[in-house]
Amino acid sequence: MNRGIRVARIVLIAFGVLGLAVGAAFLVATVRPKGLTGLAVWLVAAIVLHDGILAPVAFLANRLLRGVGRRVPAAVLAVLQVTVVVGVVMTLIVLPEIRAKQLGPRNPSVLPFDYGLRLALLWAVLALLSAAVCALLMVRSQRIRGSTR
Asked: pLDDT, tens digit, for every residue of 7-51?
């Protein structure tokens, strides 16, 4: 292995371990023991959600997209994959707000918006934008194929 790559890996691992140590110290110093239980439940749920649902769905979607990849340009597949990743990440970010809004915040000004509607609008915009970009890429691909024949 290249010496530069080995040094870069060691530096990155050291920064990662340092970040974990600082985060753990900050967590223990600022969160009450009762809050640690809730955090542990959240972390386990996140792992189950990711490994049990999101990762298999992403894997199957990737396999399906790769299966049709012979007829679809690679750029179109990349656009679709990026769209799904952005949508899923935003969904994971917004789901706690939706749940907190359902439970009713103590201060109504903390969660002032309809986050479910906004999430649906985000997915609609992502779908429209990716469809438009994919259509442009398909037209471009067909023009390039037509000009090479």
From this structure: 999 999 999 999 999 999 998 899 888 888 888 888 898 888 888
Residue 52 pLDDT > 80: yes
Q: Does the CA dihedral 71-82-12-54 come out positive or negative?
A: negative
Write b or e for each residue in 26-62: b if 16 or more Cβ atoms lie within 10 A of its Cβ, otherwise e: eeeeeeeeeeeeeeeeeeeeeeeeeeeeeeeeeeeee
Q: Are 73 and 141 in contact (CB under 8 A)?
A: yes
3-state secondary structure the chain: CCHHHHHHHHHHHHHHHHHHHHHHHHHHHHCCHHHHHHHHHHHHHHHHHHHHHHHHHHHHHHHHHHHCCCCCCHHHHHHHHHHHHHHHHHHHHHHHHHHHHHHCCCCCCCCCCCHHHHHHHHHHHHHHHHHHHHHHHHHHHHHHHHHHC
